[in-house]
Amino acid sequence: MKKIIICILLVLISISLMAEENYDWLTTGRFWWIEDGRELVDPKADFIYWNRPPNAKFRKLEIPPGSVLYQVQLRNELFYFLYETEKEVNKQYPIGTAIGTDPFEVEFNENFTHMARYSRASDDRRTFWGGYNREGRQENQKYPLVGIWGVLPSLNEYRLVDPSDCIYYLEIEEEIPGWAVRKGQYLLKKLKENIFETVSSFPEGCLRLEIRNEKQILLLPLFKAAKDERRRVAPLSVRRQ
């Protein structure tokens, strides 16, 4: 009888631990929205209301094993991700919807100083997306896409990023008025119970998410404001009904 009781307790503990590890509730239900979160750490802070709070959503990160993942920064206002599979090294697949859902094809010239990018729709229709010259020298011989491409206002920097242990990602769908936290996508890696941090190759993409409950998350920037930054580097609240 004791053995049966012990087995039941072990099963219950195992189920409990599995439930604690499962954060799929982040990805279900309605969209989340973003608010001023300073009062969560300082009750005396003045709350700023927005007529239309920016939307956000959480999604599971689903890319094929062995894929190469790039984090891309568009100027100083957007982060997004593209990945290459082992079989298609010049074809990039977007994650989420920040720049659409159609894959891209990249063609380089002989010395990798110019690239042309095409989008490939689901009906196999190919559309020219743009031509870009490299800024500076080639930084990575194995991955020629790494580097800065284009000119303002279309200046993109590609960096490799390691998605190991990242199960979810956050997508902020609109600009956050007055805040330095950028719209776009953020890989999420669990640090401990109810605490996630973003995995980013750019300092401005470093954030911490503290889950208060299933309806509110405190988002803390982990980067410092640049000298020319006029927007707030301050806490935000990610909420849903």
Plain-language structure description:
The chain is mainly β. The N and C termini lie far apart (46 Å). The chain has two domains: 23-59 and 163-239; 83-158, no CATH class. It is 8% helix and 42% strand. A hairpin with a 7-residue loop joins strand 13 (195-199) and strand 14 (207-213). The longest helix is centred in the N-terminal third of the chain and has 20 residues, at 2-21.
For this entry, give a set of tags.
241 residues, mainly beta, 2 domains, 16-stranded mixed β-sheet, disordered N terminus
For the record, give the distance between the C-alpha atoms at the N and C termini, rounded to a whole number.
Answer: 46 Å
What is the subunit arrangement here?
A: single chain
Uncertain runs with pLDDT below 50, 5 residues or more?
1-20
Q: For the residues shown, what is the average pLDDT?
A: 87
Q: Helical element count?
A: 1
Helix content: under 10%
Instruction: Please tell me the total number of domains.
Output: 2
Rounded radius of gyration (Å) = 21 Å
Please outline the major beta sheet: 16 strands, mixed
* Helix-strand category: mainly beta
Report the principal-axis shape. globular
* Content of β-strand: 35-45%
Order of helices and strands: HEEEEEEEEEEEEEEEE
Number of strands: 16
